[in-house]
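This section describes the prediction task in plain terms. A model, or a person checking by hand, is given the sequence of a single protein chain and must write out its three-dimensional structure as a string of tokens. No templates, partner chains or ligands are provided. The sample shown here is typical of the held-out split.
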Amino acid sequence: MSMNRRKLPIGGVQSFDRLRKEFDVYVDKTMHIYNMATRYHTVFLSRPRRFGKSLLCSTIASLFRGDRELFDGLAISETDWDWTKKHPIIHIDLGAGNVTVNGTKILNDTLSRQLNRIGNLYGIPIEKEYNIADRFADVITKLSEKFERPVVIIDEYDNPLLNTINKPRVNAALREELRGFYSVIKQYGEHIRFTFITGITKFAQISMFSGMNQPKDISMLPEYCDICGITQEELETCFAPEIDLFAPKHGGREKYLQRLRDEYNGYYFTEERTSVYNTFGILNHFDEDAKFAPYWSQSGIPSYVPKYLEAKGVNIVDIENARMKAIGFADYKDDTISLFPLLYQAGYLTITDYDEASGLYTLNYPNAEVRKMLAVFFMRRYFPKQSVTSDSLAVEMSQALCEGDVEEFFDILRGYLEKVDYSLITNITEYYFEFAVSNIINMLSGNGLICENECHSARGLLDSVIQTGDYIYILEFKVDKPVVAALRQIKEKDYGLLYSEEVRRGKKLLKIGVSFSRETRNIVEWGIVS
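The expected answer:
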């Protein structure tokens, strides 16, 4: 590769100052910040981890500090922003700290250290005998008296609550402590120039989300759909050198861009049909010589997600094509947080459709990386004996499908189902087949395969669809019924018509019925519609 490669902000660079001084690329989001800061007093933004929330917080801090030179050439430099006012910054980060044991003590220690640091930075005394909420109020008032009104930035405000989601007592104590701390923002609002709060969820019983002076929640506003993440236009503009460099390696520009979309794009945070790439994944992809790997999921699944999934005994079939109203995305009370909002806010589901008449959003996996990552999680949870061979199974099945060898595919699938440890799946016995097959199909996502389960269409619900470079497979499953019932349904509903355009372009369509026995918990027979 060329020795003149650009320096990309790899490793989760969260400092705007450092990014602008040391790296070659910045995707300009400053007009979003300008619009927020000139229209609202207190703003809340929910986005998944590693989507750039902390960098956004740092950018806001630099802007209000008046670091004008860092914004040269950016969109906000062309506005009427008043650079003469330099505001002190109260930046609280709750993204670290293990609060699962001695929760309130660890929380108070974390907040105390950060308030002390702010006091030292601006030369104001901190009253040590005050409780943590009163110390917060004291810092706000002293800064506003000595300087301009301060700007309050709270990053990952809900991290202590999410990390104790399976510990009701600790969670309740933390919630009470945070309620008192965050209530200061409302009580001392006239002393604050601007407040920006980030997190994953929106807990209604936290004081700042109830009563007067509620934060403006911009999380699902269409105009802020791309405030975090990278749009397709931004990708092709800001990363043109990387795309030009690696496109030949992946079959040319169009094929390369399509593969990038399949693997890393697909996040929709509003009804606006503008999707974004996960920043962490795309940057690491370019840095690793355009290697396609699950960078975001490999960086660590948040602890609260497996805690919740295991506690609720979640079935992978329940996750796909979930539907909910807008109110379901927020306003969690105590421990009543539900599955779909949690997975959406954590980045494992995204908005794939919106019906204006009913007000219902449809959620599904954003891309191949996330689909495969959750499939691996379910594999390890429910099929531990199979997990050690899951990668080789997926490779063998993918190869069979790419070559059109349906018999080989089902031979491998039968062997997989034969070895499952049934003692771990008693809670999903009735839906075992759908669960197991959906799981293995999801593991095939990526590597040139596009896999979907429970595909909604005007002609009905297709159980599974797998697309390779040369083939499209429609799979219809029946339990304790002859395979002819599945074949008849495919034919009567004419599912193949959905892919007539692809067939005209040369792809081969295989419409397959599969019969599964609940008694033997395996495939009895399969057949292809002529």
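For orientation: The CA atoms of residues 309 and 339 lie 8 Å apart.
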